[in-house]
Design a protein that fits this description.
Chain lengths: 623, 314
């Protein structure tokens, strides 16, 4: 293996806009930038079309009002804020609720084939925390539909795609603005340098930092880390969502997602004794809108106006904590989860049509037929609400020219994300980031001179893992990091365990800097892992520090020693920075909400008008 | 690329430090193809089995404990992204959805890369041919959105929805004889995945574009001889041949041999459909973006624009 390559031999590209990440947000950002006339590159760590967005199942939330005409952006805004336990950036929640319907219709215009209502419009399904059936969907593979549609759109516009390319560091100019990025092709190991007037981070999530996760290998927090290292800020990184329903058996499938659509379509949660235990976990916060008897809950599927929603469809944080408590109390299923039962409530034909992927996933991986038997499920690390701090309207970070959209950005979802709000988030803010990035690139001149010193430092650093001999295996270190985060910074947290995690992370950081990746540069997964570990450690540090600082329980962040929300802490974001080799977290006041929006949250119910006859997506047969 | 069948048990310890083996269970003998475009061979790894594993789990354990630089492409490990396609005991499959319990364990299990695409390293192949073909597909073209939005009936979208279940694992492309055994056909044949994509567009209730001549002339629909190998390997159980390709062939033939259309063509002297070379000339051939990377890997440039036979096939 040769040392660092000569700078003159490096492949170089010059673009107006470089988008890092090719899931829903990245693809949408690229489409927008091209539409605005920018020379645009789309850089992705995998092949095009494989990003984690494909795994989104249930749907995309948008107040189209196709099934329940009472639905509108105000109700969606209210649901999102309440679901997020009021920690959301109000402006992002507002923009999201207002623009999501246009983004769904636009996907249709690009060829997406959503499921239909009887009168030929886009069908919407029920999901946790949403007042009305609101999720546009395609069976239980909505993410695949979205990625393929945006991918086909981007390709038809002639986007330049750089596949299997990992970005290692961002580059900045003398003014402190972003000027490009350095990475390498995973297949060949060759380096590549991009100069760009705007860079959009759309790198997705961080799930691989935990042991049991629904996330794919790519979800290592690269964008969070790149932003922090470049001097940008992240907020509320302690807010991590553990999805209540991941597979628990077999071991190799542990963590795989089971869509919330199972519950939206009638599935219920039961403990070992067959009890629908969610009725015992209705928090006062949601009591007014949640059914407290099985009779009322079951009537809600057909009549959302006169009955309240079943407790199985409480927001995800509530359901995940309840499952955790049942298992701890010894009322769990044989493999340490609880039962999710749709078999006894809906016909086999209905289940296979509405939930085809779930049917095949259980049949193939667990030998369970979900049309006849209940599923065993338990919480799995699914999503990070916290993320890179951005301006709500433009998605620009505190580093000029650096934008972030999708899961990598923070603020939109507060302390807990509602199901279905992610896919709409990707398109709403992906578009806005692409637009603002394009406007910057086409506006005032930006100095994109590359500082060759920065570039060669990145090469040396990246290659050090290949050149070092006798160090630890990166895979072993990844296991240790996952174990630490799973056991000490998991779904329920306490001061002592978080303090222990903080110390462990120091040790893990030192070890990670000294791992060795034997083998060459060509498609060497050990080398890739060595670099991904740096990103995951950045996330682990921020999440742990944020979790220590937020001495309350709110949404996805649950402190055993501070079990209640603290009204004072509702007013702050915990802001993470990386300075002089250290991660720091400081509380800073959140932007206050205008009075007219605050009023929307007080008006309890927007369902004053009666539903028209024939409304109701779930009005199909139930047994 | 000829894949040797030679087996070499090269310093592979029988015991893995990772995980407890089921008591009395035999040690797995996994023969993984290792090498690159210049050649390679099967290397045997021995590893104790664990409960409920899929093939990709075992490959990952080998990677984590015995072969840290073993190249394998994967993403979701849930059968949804279509990244981990390989040939398991010669059967093209997704590694993440093939349970070990479905394979005989009294003999070695072989895993080799997809044969139709050039090997990059170990189990990873260069599938750029597929991405080049994707660029040639004339885009979805709806009429302007009417007031109140488009209306489509469920029954009309279901045909397209079946095809849109495709996860682009490219196993159908891998088994299609037209390109598996004839590298030269890649220059003028789209393969089952993209013929299905064209069928989807043709059947889309809102699409307005007529692609029939293009499908016949450039996408090579006539080359498919309906052996249904693609349908057999599809992990999404899409009826590629019956529901997509055969209707597409019929549609194209109808337009070709319809006497009225024939006369119309004669009288109006419509321009001939673009030839493959014309289309290819308009297509960028670089694998990554517009600029060529020149990484020298055979087949790395787009097959659609390349007339050089690659190393695969045969």
């Amino acid at each position: 293996m040769a040392g660092a390559p000569a700078l003159s031999e490096i492949e170089r590209h010059d673009y107006d806009v470089v988008v890092i990440g090719a899931g829903g947000a990245g693809m949408r950002a690229a489409v927008e930038a091209i539409d605005k006339g920018c020379r645009t590159a789309l850089v992705c760590k995998s092949l095009l079309g494989k990003a984690h967005t494909v795994m989104a199942e249930g749907g995309m939330a948008a107040a189209l009002g196709n099934v329940w005409p009472q639905d509108n952006w105000q109700v969606h805004f209210r649901d999102t804020m309440r679901g997020g336990k009021m920690l959301n950036n109000w402006r992002m929640a507002q923009i999201h609720a207002q623009e999501a319907p246009d983004r769904v219709l636009e996907l249709e215009e690009w060829g997406a084939l959503f499921d239909r209502t009887p009168d030929g419009r886009i069908l919407q399904r029920d999901f946790g925390g949403h007042r009305y059936a609101r999720l546009a969907h395609v069976g239980d593979r909505t993410g695949l539909e979205m990625i393929r549609t945006t991918q086909q759109r981007a390709v038809s516009l002639g986007v330049d795609v750089y596949m299997e390319c990992k970005i290692v560091r961002l580059l900045k100019n003398a003014d402190g603005a972003v000027a490009g990025a350095v990475g390498f092709y995973r297949d060949s190991g060759d380096f590549v340098v991009f100069s760009a007037k705007s860079v959009v981070l759309a790198t997705g999530g961080v799930g691989k930092t935990w042991k049991f996760t629904s996330n794919s290998w790519e979800s290592t927090g690269d964008g969070h880390a790149l932003a922090l290292w470049a001097g940008a800020e992240a907020i509320d990184m302690e807010c991590v969502q553990f999805h209540p329903t991941g597979m628990v058996w077999p071991p190799s499938a542990r963590g795989l997602l089971v869509t919330e659509g199972v519950r939206g379509d009638g599935g219920v949660l039961k403990n070992r004794d067959g009890e629908r235990f969610m009725f015992n976990y209705i928090s006062p916060y949601f009591a007014a809108e949640t059914a407290d008897t099985i009779e009322e809950a079951d009537k809600w599927y057909d009549d959302k106006v006169n009955y309240r929603r079943p407790p199985e469809l409480l927001p995800r944080d509530e359901v995940a904590r309840a499952i955790n408590s049942e298992v701890k109390a010894g009322r769990g299923s044989p493999h340490g989860g609880v039962f999710l039962d749709i078999a006894s409530r809906r016909s086999a034909e209905y289940i296979e049509r509405r939930l085809p992927s779930m049917y095949h996933q259980f049949k193939q991986l667990a030998d369970v037929d979900i049309t006849t038997d209940p599923m065993e499920i338990g919480p799995t690390c699914h999503y990070i609400m916290g993320g890179v701090r951005v301006d709500a309207d433009t998605e620009m970070t505190s580093v000029p020219g650096l934008f972030a959209a999708g899961e990598v950005a923070g603020g939109m979802h507060g302390a807990n994300r509602l199901g279905g709000n992610s896919l709409s988030d990707l398109l709403v803010f992906g578009r806005r980031a692409g637009l603002a990035a394009a406007e910057r690139a086409l506006g005032t001149p930006v100095d994109t001179t590359i500082d060759e010193g920065q570039v060669s430092d990145v090469f040396k650093h990246a290659l050090s893992f290949l050149e070092r001999e006798g160090g630890e295996q990166p895979y072993d270190l990844h296991h240790d990091l996952q174990d630490t985060m799973q056991s000490l910074v998991g779904i329920i947290r306490t001061e002592s365990e978080l303090a222990e995690a903080k110390e462990k992370l120091v040790e893990l950081g030192e070890r990670a800097a000294k791992v060795s990746a034997p083998g060459g540069r060509r498609f060497n997964p050990g080398w890739h892992m060595s670099l991904d570990l740096e990103s995951m450690l950045a996330v682990a540090n921020c999440t742990t520090l944020g979790a220590l600082a937020r001495k309350e329980s709110r949404g996805g962040h649950t402190r055993d020693d501070y079990p209640k929300p603290d009204p004072e802490l509702e007013k702050v974001n915990f802001v993470c920075r990386y300075r002089d080799g250290e991660y720091t977290v400081t509380p800073e006041p959140r932007p206050a909400m205008p009075a007219e929006l605050a009023k929307l949250l007080e008006d309890g119910d927007h369902a004053a008008e009666p539903a028209p006859a024939g409304a109701g997506a779930a009005k199909e047969e139930s047994k | 690329m000829a894949i040797d069948t030679a087996t070499s048990a090269e310093g592979t310890p029988a015991a893995s430090p990772d995980g407890a083996a089921a008591p009395g269970a035999p040690t797995l003998r996994m023969q993984l193809w290792r090498g690159d475009e210049s050649g390679g061979e099967f290397v045997e790894y021995r590893i104790p089995p664990q409960e409920g594993e899929v093939v990709l789990d075992v490959v990952h354990r080998i990677q984590a404990t015995q072969a840290p630089d073993l190249a394998v492409r994967w993403n979701c490990k849930a059968g949804k992204c279509g990244s981990c396609s390989a040939e398991i005991n010669g059967v093209p499959s997704l590694m993440c959805m093939t349970r070990m319990s479905t394979l005989p364990t009294d003999e070695p299990i072989t895993i080799s890369p997809m044969r139709t695409f050039p090997v990059m390293r170990d189990l990873v192949t260069d599938v750029s041919y597929n991405y080049e073909v994707a660029k040639l597909i004339p885009a979805f073209t709806p009429p302007p959105r009417p007031e109140g939005g488009y209306r489509m009936q469920q029954i009309d979208v279901e045909r397209g929805q079946e095809f849109r279940k495709c996860i682009e694992c490219f196993l159908c492309q891998n088994v299609c004889h037209v390109i598996r055994d004839h590298e030269e056909n890649k220059a003028h044949y789209a393969g089952p995945r993209f013929l299905m994509r064209l069928a989807e567009l043709e059947m889309h209730p809102l699409d307005t574009l007529d692609r029939r001549a293009y499908i016949r002339e450039r996408m090579g629909v006539g080359l498919c001889n309906i052996t249904k190998c693609c349908t057999e390997v599809c992990p999404e159980h899409i009826h590629i041949t019956d529901n997509a390709i055969i209707p597409l062939k019929e549609r194209v033939v109808d337009s070709r041999y319809d006497p009225v259309a024939f006369l119309g063509r004669k009288i109006l002297r419509r321009p001939a459909p673009m030839t493959a070379d014309e289309v290819a000339a308009r297509t960028r051939t670089a694998r990554h973006g517009t600029a060529s990377r020149g990484n020298g890997a055979p087949g790395a440039t787009g097959a659609a624009g390349s007339h050089e036979p690659g190393p695969a096939g045969g």
